[in-house]
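FYI - complex with adenosine monophosphate, inputs then prediction.
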Amino acid sequence: MTVARILSEKGSSVVTIQPHRSLADAIHLLAEKRIGAVVVAETDGVVLGILSERDIMRALAQSGAAAFDAPVSGHMTSQVTSCSRSATVEDLMQIMTEGRFRHVPVVEDGHLVGLVSIGDVVKRRIAAVEAEHQAMRDYITMA
Ligand code: AMP
């Protein structure tokens, strides 16, 4: 299954935050949207970074409550690994495992067009494995 298919099922909207906003703003956004990471971008949709709950934990461990007022740009990851709509679930499993992260923005022509999380990947992988098992069971009972 491709990323294009995943996006057609889950939608292509992505929660973003501007780099000058505070970590407190980011925390409220993550809590309100019930998500674990937010893509950092200006309104033009060009990805500048990604900020996940792990970055926020690290900032709090380093600076305590002072971190709440720090700008997102100071704690985001700027070297973002993205994928295209033609990437497959298998590609994403490899990217996430090797990079040790759970979110991959989908970028086309330099602009953000979606985001795939580890939850999306696991859901599709389980569905594929179950379909294979069912096909195998059907084959055995037919024989
Ligand atoms: P996560 O597992 O997605 O919560 O992120 C773990 C760490 O990897 C955090 O420091 C994130 O900023 C970073 N990160 C998350 N997604 C990506 C990505 N697609 N490319 C590069 N770094 C990422």
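The pocket of adenosine monophosphate is lined by residues 36-37, 50-55, 77, 80-81, 99, 101-104 (CB under 6 Å). The chain is about 45% helix and 20% strand.
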